[in-house]
Amino acid sequence: MTELPKPSDLPRHVAIIMDGNGRWARKRLLPREAGHVAGVGAVRDTVRAASDIGLENLTLFAFSSENWKRPKTEVGALMGLFRAYFKSDMDELVARGVRVRIIGHRGRVATDIGGMIEDAERRTLDNKGLNLTFAFDYGAQEEIANAARELARAARDGRLDPETITPELFATRLFTSALPEPDLIIRTSGEHRLSNFLLWQSAYAELLFLDTLWPDFGREALMDALECFAQRERRFGALNSEAVA
Ligand code: FPP
């Protein structure tokens, strides 16, 4: 069993692109939806582990703005799983002191899911444990365009001097304004891309691409990922101490 790195070596914010549900199902000659069902199990296990470890922030890419292009039956199955997850897991999340947030478009999801999202955010608003964020109907380019539009409107209306726009100010207009930037972004299933996930926020994130398919991810894989992160040397564009000496 992997040991937990010392607190100063832990990332403050881990974000995960949960990929490979379909391939997991295909390998077992099961329908894709069965992979998503198994994927919910991996979400549950990972969230419990993150909460037990005392991780500050976990962000999970649950549904991208491009996922609407999948067959209607698969989109329907995924929406059904979100509904079921919020119904079945909210009490546990509340008991664990988890604060739930959803980042994404919001306007395009079914009214009842919108209501569940608002309810989950309201119920956990004052919680001080793990910050659990689901990126749901989320696309980073759309998020960045929204932020630019908001600042442009403010400038047009004379409420903002364009010369005062800095990366820090820009970041306050992103969905993630309340969260620190991710230190570690994990993608499962062997694909090596970010797929429109946290493009602004990932500027200095460590990237970890794993061959594990998402339904096989969980507590142990998270611990391994944290151990791997602890070995990385982060320089944020500067030099390491040896190079300076
Ligand atoms: C990618 O696998 C995964 C998704 C598109 C959605 C992620 C959804 C879950 C983990 C389950 C539901 C989550 C919650 C929070 C209730 P893929 O279908 O692209 O896999 P493939 O690339 O192997 O086809």
Q: What is the secondary structure topology, with strand pairs?
A:
Blueprint: E1 13-17, H1 21-27, H2 32-53, E2 57-64, H3 72-95, E3 99-103, H4 111-123, E4 131-138, H5 140-156, H6 167-171, E5 184-187, E6 206-209, H7 219-231, H8 241-244
Parallel strand pairs: 1-2, 1-5, 2-4, 3-4, 5-6
Question: How would you characterize this protein structure?
Answer:
- By secondary structure, this protein is of the alpha/beta class.
- It has helices spanning 21-27, 32-53, 72-95, 111-123, 140-156, 167-171, 219-231, 241-244; strands at residues 13-17, 57-64, 99-103, 131-138, 184-187, 206-209.
- It has a six-stranded parallel sheet with strand order 3-4-2-1-5-6, with helices on both faces.
- α4 links the parallel β3 (99-103) and β4.
- The longest helix has 24 residues, at 72-95.
- The model has no long low-confidence stretch (mean pLDDT 96).
- Farnesyl diphosphate is lined by residues 18-23, 36, 39-40, 43, 62-63, 67, 81-82, 85, 134, 189, 214.
Task: Calculate the terminal CA-CA distance, rounded to whole Å.
Answer: 37 Å
Number of strands: 6
Helix content: 40-55%
Principal-axes shape call? globular
Count of helical regions:
8
List keywords for this structure.
globular, alpha/beta, 6-stranded parallel sheet, single chain, binds farnesyl diphosphate, 245 residues
Structure summarized in a few sentences:
With 245 residues, the chain is an alpha/beta fold.
